[in-house]
Amino acid sequence: xxxxxxxxxxxxxxxxxxxxxxxxxxxxxxxxxxxxxxxxxxxxxxxxxxxxxxxxxxxxxxxxxxxxxxxxxxxxxxxxxxxxxxxxxxxxxxxxxxxxxxxxxxxxxxxxxxxxxxxxxxxxxxxxxxxxxxxxxxxxxxxxxxxxxxxxxxxxxx
Length: 158
What we know:
22% of the residues lie in helices and 30% in strands. The protein has 3 helices and 4 strands; from the N terminus they run βαββαβα.
């Protein structure tokens, strides 16, 4: 059977037990239709990048499943009809990753391959030359208001 990964976001006004109950409910839907959930993770309440249905936060849950496509379609259909579920994402994968997902790993474990942050220069510090940001002259009559010589080829002002 194909392997899938599902992430869904539930409304922020649910309790943790209600959100975890949704995970169990959709796990039962998959198993009733011939599939099985290999692993499930409740990621907790997280802030979203933008509002969805007037909600700024949501309960995130992650499922790894081994199920036929018909079972996945039925689960997605029920998720989209459920009032408490705001968004659903299902991805077909070749193999499930080992261990916990990136969201569940500690920050120290995730940053291991990016190098130490202490080795980097501080913001605005270091030996970088000025890169033309907002430092220095911010415009005015001399530079046409926007910096540079944008108005030089227009001729004299009236």
